[in-house]
Design brief:
The complex is a heterodimer of chains A (163) and B (791).
Chain A lengths: L1 E7 L2 E7 L5 H8 L18 E4 L2 E4 L12 E3 L13 H8 L9 H14 L5 H7 L11 H10 L13
Parallel strand pairs in A: 1-5
Antiparallel strand pairs in A: 1-2, 3-4, 3-5
Helix pairs in contact in A: 2-5
Chain B lengths: L15 H5 L15 E7 L5 E7 L1 H4 L4 E6 L35 E2 L5 E7 L2 H8 L3 E6 L6 H4 L15 E7 L4 H10 L2 E9 L2 E2 L7 E7 L4 E6 L4 H13 L6 E4 L15 H13 L3 E4 L2 H7 L2 E2 L2 E9 L5 E13 L27 E9 L13 H19 L3 H8 L8 E2 L5 E2 L4 H11 L5 H10 L3 E10 L7 H6 L8 E7 L5 E5 L8 H13 L6 E4 L17 H28 L6 E4 L2 E4 L5 E3 H9 L14 E6 L8 E10 L6 E11 L6 H20 L30 E4 L19 H20 L14 H9 L2
Parallel strand pairs in B: 1-13, 11-12, 16-17, 22-23, 29-30
Antiparallel strand pairs in B: 1-5, 2-4, 2-6, 3-5, 7-17, 8-15, 9-14, 10-11, 10-13, 15-16, 18-19, 20-28, 21-22, 21-27, 24-25, 25-26, 28-29
Classes of the chains: A alpha+beta (163), B alpha+beta (791).
């Protein structure tokens, strides 16, 4: 066991970790930041996605010790400074982009990374980007819609029958 | 326009804020002081006898507190099955014991053998590797037909065979159906498989057991759809703890889809171990563990036959199904292929004679139980594939064949030949709507355009029915259910007018905290923000049977309406006293009680304050306070229905199928929150498209699970599905519950698999591959390509 320190959501935070401790477990058990979820053990589901030095990573595939000193952002750090929902978070609520909420932190973190790189993605780009995040509830319809809406695009006609 | 926050409004979900900010509280987020961690050592073979189990070395390892084995549970009951099915000879089903930990034999890969409880999870895992298990491997039975062979190895030696039951329904019709087939002008038959699935809610299961010697109270935190059911089953049948000494809490739960209805060994274990060790004990499933312990779904093998007269009227239907039970009977397993399946075989059609035969089979696989739809998707898949095949065989339009045989709008209420009575529906209307939503008139142009790109485009159509709002208790009791299926609600009005609702329903994604509040707010005429919905804790909610089968609004919402009406009735009496008027003259509108025809009124908060500060109150005739509980037991199921249309493109070079559009026209009766209803349909459609194209739970002949992770089990992802076009404007409200609601949770998963497969067959026929009459799910590129090129 060794003390590991990193900057999480803008604050320096430390906890004990073993060499085998995954970043996801470090965040959840070590730091008590339970917003990051673990939905699988093969790095497929993406529920544990966080940002490490600005890049979206699956925190179950990173050792905590390997990212000591890094700048980590989790879902707990995504709201606006006044506590209100960010544009992306608000779009998820407005467009019903979540049901049980378990995949949601990973979806938001992954989508935020997409929008940082591609401010106006196409539907196909959103779907392709979210391919590493599994949702079992929403059928993805409203997640894709929320991400498009968060990018400022008109989603009023999505899902409406052809004339 | 519905009032914002009232019935019919797409009110945004209040749950979302906590989920979007990382403030949800799921079971794995709960860590108790002094908590120990449990790691289960599980069988690596499908069938074997435990000759020896040496835990000495493991017990001496760092941090290990205790190792439990089957011997610790010798005096403890097995996990109970909640439904006793009677076979067609009048005999009860064969019901093996389902021990918490293996009692000398293991019967599937994943069957728990021992549990290490240690200070940390890592220590528990490390120690489990030091346990020496000596297992004599026995021949495993995996295939259902092989399991029924006379000389097949038996999964349970104390049973006479691997046949759980041989069920016939309606048994009295068996000969009449056979006679109808002999007289038929046309007979169409189809052999098909309803592929085995894994529910895979994104949150794996978790159990945290706690024991408080201060009041001799056991508490279980668990990922459950129905905490009261778990308390009853575990307390009364497994551990022998009376309800008042046992609390079950299901906090935020990350999806269920059926797989979190059932009482699992890990729940009983953690509760038992916490009591034994006087410390909290936590178990969190890995995804790999989930694949070999969560109950699986579907896994039916069926032959279905349809008899038609010369005018193409359906005259009889007959099915023979083998249904996999797995190694043990999970909580509702026995009811799924029988009462939740056979009773829906009429579909939307007026077929006069139906006979359903189901043989349920034990195999050395994970137990199989309800998964989104539970029996109804299996019924719909058979029927809607068969009707499509019949239309092709007879050379008639599949839409017209369906329309001709629909139960017509003027025939409701309609008594089917398979026991149930449909109260309302209008299948012609939903079919019309679907054709519009799907832009059916433009289909030929799209097919031609796709052809230019080298793609085979096709359209598949289905019409489904399901039975929701389970269930009338006296009816299901006659059919073998060992539980009542009512629901409950307590409405507690607080002194200043806010309301706390305690419901026996449970929300694990459905948004009850929002929709239930909409119902109460609408009825009283107050802001929905004044209403809080509490669920998930047996300590403060009335006894309820939980959430599955779209019963929450139809049954739980009805209890809520009843309790709220009691509140309104009492509040009117209080208002009458305050206004010195007759109770009959009191009107409630927009949260204000008025005396009819006058300007005298008192607002909601004035009445609630009087109830709790009864200074001016008729204490001689009425109790103070404003709190009411109601139980609601439905008089019938509800019958949502709808038409679905799927359009696919098949790549003839590879056999790959792409769902290019999907349209749905559902009749859910009245709707409280359209946004949430549409979300439920979207999710169901993706699960059904997943079943049709991607998902498959596969065992090898030795009982090893080949699809044991998300790397091998293909979950639908964002780029596997299109935007869906959903419509719910064709409403025939339910006639027997106060909200007129039918339920929408399973519809998408029920209707979409046959729609996808019908579309693939249509695409192949349009492309000239007219010899292909069926492809089993998942309709993978390999299967499509093989079907195209195998005559």
């Amino acid at each position: 066991m060794a003390k590991v320190t990193m900057t999480v959501n803008g604050r320096a935070m430390s906890a004990e970790a073993e060499g085998r401790t995954l970043l996801s477990d470090f965040l959840r058990q070590g730091l008590g930041l339970t917003g990051t979820h673990v939905g699988c053990d093969t790095s497929q589901c993406g529920a544990c996605t966080v940002h490490v030095d600005g890049l979206a990573v699956k925190s179950c595939s990173v050792l905590a010790m390997d990212v000591a000193g890094a700048n980590v952002t989790t879902i707990e750090g995504m709201a606006n400074a006044d506590g209100s929902l960010s544009t992306l978070q608000q779009a998820f609520q407005d467009h019903h982009g979540l049901q049980c909420g378990f995949c949601t932190p990973g979806m938001v973190m992954s989508a935020a990374a997409l929008l940082a790189d591609t401010p106006k993605p196409t539907e196909a780009e959103v779907r392709h980007h979210l391919e590493g995040n599994i949702c079992r509830c929403t059928g993805y319809h409203n997640i894709v819609k929320a991400v498009l809406a968060a990018s400022g695009q008109d989603v009023g006609k999505v899902g409406i029958a052809a004339e | 326009m519905p009032k914002d926050g009232g019935i019919g409004a797409s009110t945004k979900r209040r749950e979302d804020v906590r989920f979007l900010t990382g403030n949800g509280r799921y079971t794995d987020d709960i860590n108790l002081r002094g908590q120990l961690h449990a790691h289960f050592l599980r069988s690596e073979v499908a069938h074997g006898r435990i000759r020896g189990l040496d835990t000495a070395a493991a017990a001496a390892m760092p941090g290990v507190v205790r190792i439990f084995t089957g011997a610790d549970f010798a005096a403890i009951g097995g996990l109970p099955c909640g439904w006793q099915v009677t076979d067609r000879f009048g005999q009860p089903m064969q019901e093996p014991k389902h021990p918490v930990l293996a009692d000398g034999k293991v019967r599937h890969v994943g069957d728990p053998i021992a549990v290490v409880v240690a200070e940390t999870l890592e220590q528990a895992r490390d120690a489990a590797e030091a346990i020496v298990v000596d297992i004599e491997e026995l021949p495993a039975v995996i295939d259902m037909k092989a399991a029924l062979a006379p000389d097949a190895p038996k999964v349970h030696e104390d049973l006479t065979s691997n046949l759980c039951y041989d069920w016939g329904f309606v048994e009295e019709n068996r000969e009449a159906v056979a006679e109808a087939f002999r007289k038929a002008d046309h007979v169409v038959s189809l052999d098909l498989v309803n592929n085995r699935l894994v529910a895979n809610p994104m949150e794996p299961r978790v159990a945290v057991g706690d024991y408080d010697p201060w009041n001799d109270m056991s508490t279980l935190y668990t990922t459950s759809q129905n905490p009261h059911v778990i308390r009853l089953l575990m307390g009364a049948f497994v551990l022998g703890i009376p309800e008042h000494r046992l609390r079950v809490v299901a906090p935020d739960v990350g999806g269920g889809f059926g797989s979190k209805i059932f009482h699992y060994a890990e729940e009983a274990f953690c509760t038992f171990a916490a009591r034994a060790l006087k410390r909290p004990v936590k178990w969190t499933s890995t995804r790999s563990e989930a694949f070999i312990t969560d109950a699986h779904g579907r896994d039916h093998v069926t032959r279905i036959e349809l008899a038609l007269d010369k005018d193409h009227n359906f005259t009889a239907l007959r099915t023979e199904t083998l249904a996999n039970m797995g190694a043990y009977l999970s909580t509702f397993s026995s009811s799924v292929p029988t009462w939740l399946h056979g009773t829906l075989m009429a579909g939307n059609y007026s077929t006069p004679l139906i006979y359903v035969n189901v043989k349920a089979v034990f195999t050395n696989t994970v137990p199989v139980d309800a998964y989104r739809g539970a029996g109804r998707p299996e019924a719909t898949f058979q029927l809607e594939r068969l009707i499509d095949k019949a239309a092709r065989q007879l050379g008639v339009d599949p839409i017209e064949l369906r329309r001709k045989n629909f139960i017509q709008p003027d025939q409701f209420p309609y008594q089917t030949p398979v026991a149930v009575v449909y109260d309302t529906g209008n299948y012609q209307a939903t079919m019309d709507k679907l054709l519009q939503v799907a832009d059916y008139s433009g289909l030929e142009a799209r097919v031609a355009e796709a052809k230019k790109r080298g793609k085979l485009r096709g359209f598949g159509i289905i019409h489904y029915i399901e039975a929701c709002g389970i269930a009338p208790s006296n009816l299901v009791g006659q059919l073998g259910a060992r539980a009542g299926l009512y629901e409950s609600a307590t409405v507690r009005v607080n002194a200043t007018g806010s309301i706390s609702v305690f419901t026996g329903s449970h929300s694990h994604g459905q948004g009850h905290e929002t929709t239930f509040a909409q119902v109460v707010a609408e009825m009283i005429g107050i802001d929905a923000g004044q209403v809080e919905i509490v669920h998930g804790d047996t300590q403060n909610t009335p006894m309820g049977m939980g959430t599955y089968g779209s019963r929450s609004l139809a049954v739980g919402g009805s209890a809520l309406v009843k309790a709220t009406n009691k509140i309104i009735n009492k509040a009117k009496k209080i208002a009458a006293h305050l206004l010195e008027a007759s109770e009959d003259d009191i009107e409630l509108k927009d949260g204000k009680f008025s005396v009819a025809g006058t300007d005298k009124s008192v607002d909601w908060a004035g009445v609630t304050l009087a109830a709790y500060v009864p200074h001016n109150y008729p204490l001689e005739s009425m109790e103070p306070g404003l709190e009411e509980t109601a139980f609601y037991d439905p008089s019938n199921f509800t019958y949502p229905s709808g038409a679905y249309g799927c359009e696919v493109e098949v790549d003839p070079d590879t056999g790959k199928v792409e769902v290019v559009s999907f349209a749905a026209a559902d009749d859910f009766g009245n709707i409280v929150n359209p946004m949430i209803v549409e979300g439920q349909v979207h999710g169901g459609l993706a699960q059904g498209i997943g079943q049709a194209l991607l998902e498959n739970c596969v065992y090898d002949e030795n009982g090893q699970l080949l699809s044991g992770s998300f790397m091998d089990y293909a979950m639908p992802r964002a780029d596997d599905v299109p935007f869906y076009r959903v419509d719910h404007s064709c409403n025939t409200p339910c006639t027997h519950n106060p909200l007129g609601v039918k339920g929408c949770g399973e519809a998408g998963a029920i209707g979409s698999p046959p729609a996808v497969v019908n579309a693939v067959i249509d695409a192949l026929h349009r492309g000239g591959y007219t010899h292909v009459s069926h492809i089993d799910m998942p309709v993978s590129p390999a299967r499509v390509w093989a079907a195209m090129h195998t005559k």
